[in-house]
Specification:
The protein is mainly alpha-helical and 110 residues long. It has 4 helices and no strands. α1 runs parallel beside α3 and α2 packs parallel to α4. The chain starts with a helix and ends with a helix.
């Protein structure tokens, strides 16, 4: 849960400041809400969602993308950091949603 809160806080703050692109930020926040609601549903039934290695990888990649957007906005080698931010952001978001789909499939199988 701490990972989720850290990402959402950085993303929402970044969207408000104009650092994180809205499309990317909304995609991340929407996924967090969906997985969070699924987790609450599973927990209310006494179960838990098994963490996937791919989910951890997606989170790790987004942990690179989000700060890269901030660093680029700060003016430190923006041409490099903006490319890194976008590449990591898009790859991380795709993996993030893929893992959310896998979690949803697990829930439906119960």
């Amino acid at each position: 849960m701490a990972d989720r809160l850290a990402i959402v806080t950085a993303v929402i703050g970044g969207m408000v400041l104009g650092v994180i692109p809205l499309l990317l930020g909304i995609g991340i926040a929407a996924r967090e809400v969906a997985v969070g609601m699924g987790s609450i549903l599973v927990a209310s039934k006494g179960g838990k969602i098994e963490v996937r290695w791919l989910g951890k990888l997606a989170t790790f990649i987004l942990y690179g993308a989000i700060p890269a957007f901030y660093v680029a906005q700060g003016g430190f080698i923006p041409a490099v950091f903006l490319v890194v931010a976008w590449v990591f952001g898009v790859v991380g978001l795709i993996l993030y949603w893929w893992v959310a789909w896998l979690y949803a499939r697990d829930l439906w199988a119960r």
